[in-house]
Design brief:
Layout (H helix, E strand, L loop, with lengths): L2 H22 L1 H7 L7 H15 L1 H4 L3 H15 L4 H5 L2 H13 L3 H10 L1 H4 L7 H10 L1 H12 L8 H21 L9 H5 L1 H23 L12 H15 L9 H13 L2
Helix pairs in contact: 1-2, 1-3, 1-7, 3-7, 3-11, 5-8, 10-11, 10-12, 11-12, 12-14, 12-15, 14-15, 15-16
Length: about 270
């Protein structure tokens, strides 16, 4: 493939990531608008990767099928399936982003390993296990985005992204359960304590977010958009604490957009 053709293909790949991110993770897509325009396609690639891999557990009926898909992603991103990866817009764009910004491939591999929980038949055993999952998944995505926003430089966001990732996992468990659907993410000890257990989960998530935001104050302002998921998560926690409704409905799109804007303007 000629350099011109390769560049055209890469542009198409990033455009597809934009589409996937906008449809599947609108909050992250909006947060990318606060980043320099030249960096947005790479943030979209990370968000699209999160969308594609995060849905594997929903799309498969058998754990083995999910494990095979996760293994494909791991091998593709490690360069073991170059032809197949080139034919997948999200994989191709993410590989390009990893190379351009020196993203640690080990963290991506660990993220995919953590996602094996999504495809197995077991429930989350404890809050500590849920937080560990969040650090390896949502936390890793934040760290990747921060590295892009720093244009490949070391960011020192690990402690902040770990706190944020743990809080996001706790919030996810609460919202999936409160939304009226079954979720394997809510630890059984929390479920058995009823509303008291859920309130404690909200308190724990809020504490994690406060710790992340405290650490964020000592980091370069350019990395703030990577942490934007905290804005909408905190919005939903406040709304649930006020209403405690079951089933709980997520905030309207305009409220989420407003929360993002306010949160980022303060950073």
């Amino acid at each position: 493939m000629s350099p011109a053709a390769a560049e055209t293909a890469l542009t198409r790949n990033y455009a597809e990531c934009d589409r996937i991110a906008r449809a599947g993770d609108h909050d992250r897509w909006l947060a990318a608008l606060f980043a320099p325009e030249r960096l947005r396609p790479h943030l979209h690639a990370i968000a699209a990767f999160a969308c594609e891999t995060g849905r594997i557990g929903e799309r498969v009926r058998e754990p083995l099928a999910g494990e095979i898909r996760l293994a494909w992603w791991r091998e593709a991103l490690m360069g073991l399936r170059p032809a197949e990866a080139a034919g997948n817009p999200v994989a191709a764009a993410l590989i390009d982003t990893i190379a351009r910004f020196a993203l640690p491939i080990a963290d991506v591999v660990d993220l995919l390993e953590a996602l094996t929980f999504d495809v197995n038949r077991q429930d989350m055993a404890s809050v500590a296990e849920l937080e560990t999952y969040g650090r390896a998944t949502a936390g890793a995505l934040i760290a990747m985005a921060a590295r892009v926003l720093a244009e490949g430089r070391e960011t020192n966001v690990a402690q902040a992204s770990d706190e944020a990732g743990a809080g996001l996992a706790l919030t996810r468990a609460l919202l999936e359960f409160a939304g009226g659907g079954e979720t394997k993410f809510l630890p059984r000890p929390v479920r058995e304590r009823g509303r008291d257990g859920l309130v404690e989960l909200v308190d724990a998530a809020t504490a994690r977010f406060e710790a992340a935001e405290a650490r964020l104050t000592s980091l370069p302002g350019e990395v703030a958009p990577a942490f934007a998921p905290l804005a909408t998560a905190r919005l939903e926690l406040r709304r649930w604490r006020r209403s405690g409704a079951h089933p709980f409905r997520a905030a309207a799109s305009w409220r989420r957009q407003w929360a993002l804007w306010i949160w980022l303007r303060r950073r």
